[in-house]
Amino acid sequence: MKKLVHKANTRGSADHGWLQVNHSFSFANWYDPTKVHFGALRVLNDDTIAPGMGFGTHPHDNMEIITIPLSGELAHKDSMGNASTIKAGEIQVMSAGSGILHSEFNPNKETHTNLFQIWIFSNKKDPEPRYDQFWMSEDKMKNNFLQLVSPDPNDEGSWIYQDAWIHIAEVDKNKSLDYHIHKQNNGIYSMVIEGEMTIAGEDLNKRDAIGVWEEEKINFLAKTPAKVLVIEIPMNF
User: Fold this and answer.
1) Rounded CA gap, 185 and 191, in Å?
2) In this structure, are strands 2-6 and 209-213 parallel, antiparallel, or unpaired?
3) What is the pTM of this model?
4) What span, in angstroms and rounded, lies between the C-alpha atoms of 173 and 222?
5) 130: β partners
6) C-alpha span between 20 and 45 (Å, rounded)
7) What is the DSSP annotation of 156-208?
8) CB of 146 within 8 A of CB of 169?
9) Which residue in 28, 118, 146, 160 could disulfide with 64, CB within 3.0 to 4.6 Å?
10) Residues 6+ apart with CB under 8 A from 28
């Protein structure tokens, strides 16, 4: 087993007034040569967007973009003709493919929006862009790894152009779960969303993260009631 630990207070951060952001990997004006990516995982941003504010229209291509609101809501418009609002409890999955334009903003005039945005390198060059969003089942994530994303269009959740899986779990105190790697030579990057956990023998608190690779099974033990995000990605791509 190989592993690395990224404590929450070692993330890059920026205060743009309307946007408070923490970067797990080098992004925008923050650069750390030891944190450029983890395998095919390029971005894990923890954004808090002020009421009525957001990102104007901007481009993406050849990137799998997954957005998970933790609180509040996010309005989305794109060049594919999609115009929708996602709320906490939903997930948005977008394959930018050959190129898209989109905008994102907090439509609420009173409350902030907090979200994770994940970017994963695509394994296919210039495919047709696609968009999806759906509700996550809270019942299915209770003491269980609920699958949100996979490479298989016929599998649970949504799919992307990469041999990657994303899961989320809510775990009771003292409950232990084992995560099994889906594909050889993949690793995981896992962040504790809430609570305290021991993952692969490492004690982690809220927003701490761990990368684990060259291991087929990883143990998760909740020290308190906890919620955790697990991103499985190819380490060589």
Assistant:
1) 20
2) antiparallel
3) 0.97
4) 5
5) 95
6) 10
7) SSEE-SSS-EEEEEEE-TT-EEEEE-SSTTEEEEEEEEES-EEETTEEE-TT-
8) yes
9) 160
10) 14
d(Cα 142, Cα 166) in Å, to the nearest integer?
16
Q: In sequence order, what are the beta bridge partners of 44?
A: 118
Domains and CATH numbers, the chain: 2-234 (2.60.120.10)
Question: How do strand 186-194 and strand 209-213 relate by DSSP bridges?
Answer: antiparallel
Pairing of strands 54-60, 63-71: unpaired
Concatenating the DSSP letter of every residue in 58-127 gives EEE-SEEEEEEEEESEEEEEETTS-EEEEEBTEEEEEE-TT-EEEEEE---SSS-EEEEEEEEE-SSSSP
Q: Which residue in this structure is represented by tokens 């902030």?
A: 112
Q: One digit per residue, pLDDT tens: the chain, 237 residues?
A: 999 999 999 999 999 999 999 999 999 999 999 999 999 999 999 999 999 999 999 999 999 999 999 999 999 999 999 999 999 999 999 999 999 999 999 999 999 999 999 999 999 999 999 999 999 998 999 999 999 999 999 999 999 999 999 999 999 999 999 999 999 999 999 999 999 999 999 999 999 999 999 999 999 999 999 999 999 999 998
Single-letter code of the amino acid located at 95: S
Tokens found for residue 131: 């968009």
Q: Write the CB contacts of 88 (distance below 8 Å, at least 6 apart in sequence).
A: 69, 70, 71, 72, 73
Which tokens sit at 103? 């905008």
